[in-house]
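Tutorial handout. Part one gives the primary structure; part two gives the three-dimensional structure as tokens.
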Amino acid sequence: MEVTPELVKHLAELSRLRLSEEEVEKIIPELRSVLGYFERISDLDVDELEELVRPIFSANVLRPDVPAAGLEQDEALAMAPEKQDGFFKLPRVVEEGR
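Part two.
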């Protein structure tokens, strides 16, 4: 793939980036280098390799889901910056009439 200033400008637009002409010219060789690595990877013969989902084995370590006692209302509200009538008081985030 040929990396041109037009391609870099198009990619910048898709990425919602504003690049100066200087930055466009600086990115061209960097992008060519990155694409060169992908070309080298695509040249590798991987037909005989076994497919892997993950390169290393990993397993989820889960704890049993056992119900436990929660906080009493007074304990939960103990460090609340503001409370009212037994509830957390928060600033309004939705305007009236919507």
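Part three, for discussion. The longest strand covers residues 83-84. Helices lie at 5-14, 21-42, 73-77.
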